[in-house]
Input
Amino acid sequence: MPLDAITYTRGSLSILNQLLLPHRTTYDPLHSSTDAWHAIHDMRVRGAPAIAIVAALSLAVELHTLIENKRLSDEAKEVEVFIKEKLSYLVSSRPTAVNLAEAAGRLGGVVGDLCKVEGATGKKVAEGYIVAAEKMLEDDVEDNRRIGGEGARWIREKAAKDGNGKVSVLTHCNTGSLATAGYGTALGVIRSLHAENVLERAYCTETRPYNQGSRLTAYELVHDNIPATLVTDNMAAALLAGKRGGACVDAIVVGADRVAANGDTANKIGTYGLAVLAKHHGVKFLVAAPWTTIDLNTKSGEDIVIEERPKHEVTRVKGPRVGEEGNGSAAMEMITVAADGIDVWNPAFDVTPAELIDGIITEVGVFEKDGSGIFHLER
Ligand code: MRU
Output
């Protein structure tokens, strides 16, 4: 069972098709930014860091092909314009996660600087872009391991309720290897707790309607032999209330698609409800994300654009027939689970206000609010 969402060597990029997981392992090659735009828009690849990296690398592959085929302009300025246009196009694939826009801005800056260098050529600008995009893939795993370590330490010190030193953590959506270049953010925290032998149990929510929890997070937890239990989204309240034989949840850890300057956090739909539940039950609520997910240009959650997805993602589910799930070539069937003709609202994300968040775990440390309840992320 591979956990590599992205496979890349210079000139060649493939993504694990997450619409088919956990039933089928199929890698889709992406040859261009157009291929990547569709893979991101259709959610064959998803998760804020993964979509930024795939977008950046798809353009690296496109530029590599143009160089190899001697079809790239010699003019540095022309290549700069070409790259920036492609980056803007890629950013339009999904609006909420800031990582993609942040990466596009940063890579656009790299290209602008390369263009100003004495003797700049189209090829040199394109090669500089390729190196910078490849660096994103390398850095992400390292950042995630740091996030995992920081989060695990904070939870052990500040969230553990039981005297036995073990903790149980609930997570939502998928924030693991499949949503990043590897290891994961919130799921990376769970991996770190498990590696430190202090994880009693992980709970993952189903995460309707795309089922990132039951299909993807459950797949990763089984893969890593982490003690874990799946619950549907509407079971979280009963779980936090101790209705599972008194089992206790010490912390909820989720990822983020965009953290506004005041700490308000956009993440997978259902996150906000979990934060309200955590407050009611005195459970710590943490957001884990790389520094690049913090968007100081967005003042508060009010300013975050929330993507709305098609109706059929709520009214239909897809998978192999029961009994055929182990057969990698079994046909995938689509069934309807809603009354024909019903109106549907399908927001992909919600915003959790900063007041409900106890800490924001990043690779540079865990941010907490000051005595007046204010995060100082600008520091
Ligand atoms: O719609 P998705 O699956 O892209 O949403 C993913 C999430 O909401 C994740 O929690 C977030 O992107 C962080 S992934 C490390």
In short: The first strand starts at residue 6 and ends at 9. The radius of gyration is 21 Å. DSSP finds ten helices and 16 strands in the chain. Residues 148-367 form a domain with the Rossmann fold fold (CATH 3.40.50.10470).
